Amino acid sequence: MQFRHFIGATAVALALPVAAAAQTVIGVSIPAATHGWAGGMNFHTREAIERLEATYSDLDFVLATASDPGKQVNDIEDMVATRNIDALVVLPFESEPLTGPVKRVKESGAWVTVIDRGLSEDGIEDLYVAGDNPGFGRVAGEYFVEQMPDGGNIVVLRGIPTTIDNERVEAFQAAIEGSGIEILDMEHGNWNRDDAFTVMQDFLSKYPDIDAVWASDDDMAVGVLAAIDQADRSDEMWVLGGAGMKEMIKRLVDGDTDMVPANVTYPPSMAATAIELTALNYVSNAPVSGDFIIGSVLITPENAEKYYYPDSPF
Amino acid sequence: MANVTANTARRGGLRVDIRVLGPIVALIALVIVGALMNANFLSYGNVTNVLARSAFIGIIAVGMTFVITAGGLDLSVGSMAAFIAGVMILVMNALIPTFGISWAVILLGMATSLIVGMAAGLFNGLLITKARIEAFIVTLGSMGIFRSLVTWLADGGTISLDFEMRELYRPVYYDGILGVAWPIIVFAVVAILGEIAMRHTSFGRHCAAIGSNEQVARFSAVHVDRVRAATYVLLGILVGLATIMYVPRLGSASSSTGVLWELEAIAAVIIGGTVLKGGFGRVWGTVVGVLILSLIGNILNLTDLVSPYLNGAIQGVIIILAVVLQRQKKADR
């Protein structure tokens, strides 16, 4: 895996100096693979770039991954200064610090595509591609209502305290309102396996009667499942994660649904969508400006095969 | 030299004051608060959970006590744990075709973990003693190196242990003897050996001597570089040992493994009464410090007193309070 990754990176690096003028240069700036979802996003980004470069000889891509907002600003400035990019596809690390630099890119006349995290000022980007966070919470909530027609007790693990997390949880709460489902407790598991394990252990000590868990993320679901298994309470409850980690989707494909009966997508491949749409702007007449919101879909054993990417790290 | 350290030790021992009792009082207070707030707090299950999850940080913090006592610091332990876990899982997965699903693979994995930990500690130790670079800078650098390496090994994702292997290895975290889980037993043994090493061996006394005055220690024929490097090697081995306990828990390692463990370990050491500038270390204090930190998290999870957003703030206040109590007494002196 690493080796192929290395070859891919070398191929991109070698291709750069060769590319002659009159090429369209598209800069891609995304956060580094510091957690599972971002790892998947990096994978799909590299794959999309390889595919497009092979298909269209007059498209040229510059990819930079940043481990913090400061580095990402530097990357973007470098792209403008040294590569004279015609378009920028950016997944901002944080909205606030990136708004200014991306705005300057726009003012230089380049096309701007923003992925997932919106900038803090409206109207900068030409194209906005994002996942549907309220939808993510709503689909999960509706699944709980469907599975628990008589109501019941659930606990909720939340992500890192952010707008994304708030939107998801608010939509979830709205979806289960009046259904008789009671949220016993909510705690932040920070989209992290270890934190989720600890929080779930404590939930299990605190509440003798839990019917289901909304882990709200597949990494957290891994920790939650281990804690439930340790307490030997697997018979009592089921768990809904989210984001479509391949190990979890594999369970659905295999029909192993006792503990994890479904999943809700929040596809890391949205980066590929954004890059493909941006490329379309240069190779076709198809209009692509506007907002493109990728809906969150419920994955069940019936449609799981479609969402299973065995090669992706996520 | 022997006189210097003996005096330091006696001064700490004779005064049974708040400096010594502070952490214990805080621990007892937390236990009482916890028991009053939730009936399940003192249940067997919860006590086991808290002690077992303390074991990783605890085992590391015992090693950190020696490093800090000798006037050093190691910021790389969290990343090191993630890196060791990654290498260990990859080695075990690679050995399965040869040895099958067997304890041989687990034992080789454990050996890998200890060896990689020792090598990582030696790397830090040699750079600090031979290249004469500040410990803070060396370990800040190796923190980045280990964290990047595990991200690279995992290709940005998660390294997972083979499922059947995990089932075999699982008891190392979840089972134990007479109802006491293995991580708790290992933590206790490490703590007791650490306490003995700190108080009753020349290694422990040399650490304190180097931490209080390196020049004097050198003139007193202490092998300063050798002892100092040994503290980092010891810490590396203990990180390896902690990883052996960590891997069977979730059977995976990723770039988010062990984030901020270094700060938790350092905080536990300081809460326990070890002096951050070096020269005086107290292993049993470190154990109390680790338990205090775990209990705060546990109690906050078990009650609904404060918003979960404030968990970090409460931990911060308690860390500062613990140190303030100790420092005040010192100033009085």
UniProtKB/TrEMBL annotation, chain A:
GO terms for molecular function: carbohydrate binding. Residues 1-20 form the signal peptide. One of its GO terms (cellular component) is cell envelope. Keywords: Signal. Its main location: other. Transmembrane segments: none annotated. Residues 26-278 form the Periplasmic binding protein domain. InterPro entries: Peripla_BP_I, SBP_2_dom. It is found in: Cell envelope. Belongs to the bacterial solute-binding protein 2 family. PANTHER family: D-ALLOSE-BINDING PERIPLASMIC PROTEIN-RELATED. This is ABC transporter substrate-binding protein. The lineage of its organism: Bacteria, Pseudomonadati, Pseudomonadota, Alphaproteobacteria, Rhodobacterales.
Automatic annotation (TrEMBL), chain B:
It comes from the Bacteria. The keyword Transmembrane helix applies. It is found in: Cell membrane. It is a multi-pass membrane protein. One of its GO terms (cellular component) is plasma membrane. The keyword Transmembrane applies. Its main location: membrane. The chain crosses the membrane at residues 20-44, 50-68, 75-95, 101-123, 135-153, 173-193, 229-247, 259-276, 283-300, 306-325. GO terms for molecular function: transmembrane transporter activity. Keywords: Cell membrane, Membrane, Transmembrane, Transmembrane helix. This is ABC transporter permease.
